């Protein structure tokens, strides 16, 4: 009987804690990535001069691994160069609904600006992780095999990948780059590549917040980074999170952008299953 009471007590306690933590003024929704990408698709061309959330203008020469993924010429996602023949992006950028009716998928390398410069390259094949799930956001990774190799120069170069099992500790300084929205819900993406300086967040804490506040389960295939000041946002998806010139994450999802207590979520490239999948699909990188 004592045990029965203890269980009831724990159940009530968990419920109360949940309820209090989860009852902020406005509950942020987990971004519907598909609609998010649509938001920045067709007819909404980047307005020049509008600014990742809390970032600053930067130059492609500083982040020469950054790519813009274009569907029929329109920027939809980021990606990164990992070798002459391969790029890395997010699987959610290439789901059937998004590719429907699209004639051409290309990446643009070597340009700071969305509206001019750089080199457009054709993709031979898109390999999305077979275990990617748009319900759980697990394994949000895709390898892009280029039709022709990238020609490397000071604005076009590959970024290194982590060793299998390498896990960035909380507080690690990282940079996220991209042409994503400057504010949650903004209408246009910026024309100039943005750089956001973020810190890797404590994973258990991040996982707890996502679970209690947005009922979303994070797994070891994910890492969190950013805060209420600086974060990735829609349109940055697929792009790189780098620390010490090593790509540690891929922009994957979040609960809005720069939402207090809910950092951005990234595919964890150090996770052994993710890391070995990249090797297997890129002729062993
Ligand atoms: C998105 O919709 C998205 N704040 C990407 C990153 C984040 C939120 C949303 C992280 O593509």
Q: Find the count of extended strands (DSSP E, 2+ residues).
A: 13
Task: Name the CATH homologous superfamily.
Answer: Trypsin-like serine proteases
Instruction: Give the biggest beta sheet.
Output: 7 strands, antiparallel
Proportion in helices: 10-25%
Assess the beta-strand content as a share of residues: 25-35%
Name the assembly state. single chain
Mean pLDDT reading: 87
Features:
285 residues; alpha+beta; Thrombin, subunit H; 6-stranded antiparallel barrel; 5 helices; 13 strands; 18% helix; globular; binds 4-(aminomethyl)benzoic acid
Walk me through the structure.
By secondary structure, the chain is α+β, with helices and mostly antiparallel strands. The chain has a single domain, classed as Beta Barrel (Thrombin, subunit H). Helix content is 18%, strand content 26%. It is built from 5 helices and 13 strands. The protein has helices at residues 2-21, 33-39, 96-99, 203-214, 272-280; strands spanning 56-57, 66-71, 74-81, 86-89, 105-109, 119-128, 142-146, 173-178, 194-199, 222-225, 240-243, 246-253, 264-268. It has a 7-stranded antiparallel β-sheet with strand order 1-9-8-11-12-13-10. Strands 2-3-4-7-6-5 form a 6-stranded antiparallel barrel. It is globular and about 45 Å long. The N and C termini lie far apart (59 Å). It binds 4-(aminomethyl)benzoic acid. Residues 31, 33, 36, 231-234, 236-237, 251, 253-254, 257, 264 line the site of 4-(aminomethyl)benzoic acid (4AZ).
């Amino acid at each position: 009987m004592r045990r029965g009471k203890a269980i009831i007590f724990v159940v009530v306690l968990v419920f109360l804690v949940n309820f209090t933590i989860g009852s902020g003024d406005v509950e942020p929704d987990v971004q519907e990535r598909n609609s998010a990408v649509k938001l920045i698709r067709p007819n909404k061309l980047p307005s020049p001069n509008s600014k990742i959330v809390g970032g600053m203008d930067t130059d492609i020469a500083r982040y020469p691994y950054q790519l813009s993924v274009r569907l029929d010429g329109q920027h939809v996602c980021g990606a990164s160069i990992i070798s002459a023949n391969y790029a890395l992006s997010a699987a959610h950028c290439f789901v059937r609904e998004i590719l429907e009716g699209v004639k051409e998928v290309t990446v643009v390398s070597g340009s700071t600006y969305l509206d001019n410069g750089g080199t457009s390259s054709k993709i031979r094949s898109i390999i999305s992780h077979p275990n990617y799930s748009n319900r759980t956001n697990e394994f949000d990774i895709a390898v892009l095999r280029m039709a022709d190799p990238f020609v490397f120069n000071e604005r076009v170069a590959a970024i290194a990948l982590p060793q299998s099992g390498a896990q960035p500790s909380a507080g690690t300084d990282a940079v996220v780059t991209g042409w994503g929205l400057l504010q949650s819900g903004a209408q246009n993406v910026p024309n100039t590549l943005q750089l956001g300086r973020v810190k890797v967040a404590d994973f258990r804490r991040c996982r707890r917040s996502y679970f209690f506040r947005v009922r979303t389960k994070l797994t070891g295939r994910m890492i969190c980074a950013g805060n209420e000041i600086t974060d990735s946002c829609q349109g940055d998806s697929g792009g790189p999170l780098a620390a010490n010139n090593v790509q540690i994450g891929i922009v994957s999802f979040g609960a809005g952008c720069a939402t207090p207590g809910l950092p951005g979520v990234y595919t964890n490239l150090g996770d052994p299953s993710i890391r070995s999948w990249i090797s297997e699909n890129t002729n062993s990188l």
